[in-house]
């Protein structure tokens, strides 16, 4: 397994975020910090977390990790998905655990089957 210190910097790929949100992501080390940020509304929190969870932030050869441009390093995708579920609970948009598990498994299978990952 590859050490995160040997990965390229996260600025090689622009994740589609509004310019003001793209600047704010530099404030976060972990997805839970997005949830705790009172400066952001639910829509902005969701935009940041969804961008963080997207395949555009996937780390090559490490399908379980995401690296959002502007953050210091890769994070387990499970941590991002947990933050999204917490945001759903805070805003009243809840997905059942079974549905969430099925979506995660489908996402992991898709990542393994393509084998294509974006270099970081």
Keyphrases for this structure?
single chain; 120 residues; mainly alpha; 3-stranded antiparallel sheet; 5 helices; globular; disordered N terminus; disordered C terminus
Architecture overview:
This protein is mainly alpha-helical and 120 residues long. The protein has one domain (13-114). The protein is 48% helix and 8% strand. The protein has helices at 19-24, 31-36, 42-53, 77-91, 97-114, and strands at 58-59, 62-66, 75-76. It has a three-stranded antiparallel beta sheet with strand order 1-2-3. Strand 1 (58-59) and strand 2 form a beta hairpin.
Question: TL;DR?
Answer:
The protein contains five helices and three strands; from the N terminus they run αααβββαα. The longest helix has 18 residues, at 97-114.
The main sheet comes to: 3 strands, antiparallel
Structural class: mainly alpha
Order of strands in the sheet with the most strands? 1-2-3
Number of discrete helical segments: 5
Helix content: 40-55%
Structurally, the number of domains stands at 1
* Low-pLDDT segments: 1-15, 113-120
Question: How many extended strands?
Answer: 3
Over all CA atoms, what is the radius of gyration? 14 Å
**Mean pLDDT across every amino acid position:** 76
Report strand %: 5-15%
Distance between the termini: 15 Å
Form type: globular
* N-to-C series of helices and strands: HHHEEEHH
């Amino acid at each position: 397994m590859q050490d995160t210190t040997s990965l390229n910097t996260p600025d090689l790929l622009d994740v589609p975020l509004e310019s003001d949100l793209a600047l704010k992501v530099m404030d976060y080390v972990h997805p839970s910090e997005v949830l705790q940020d009172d400066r952001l509304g639910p829509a902005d929190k969701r935009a940041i977390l969804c961008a963080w969870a997207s395949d555009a932030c996937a780390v090559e050869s490490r399908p379980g990790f995401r690296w959002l441009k502007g953050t210091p390093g890769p994070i387990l995708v499970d941590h991002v998905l947990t933050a999204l579920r917490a945001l759903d609970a805070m805003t009243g948009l809840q997905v059942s655990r079974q549905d969430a598990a099925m979506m995660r498994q489908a996402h992991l299978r898709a990542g393994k089957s393509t084998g294509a990952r974006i270099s970081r």
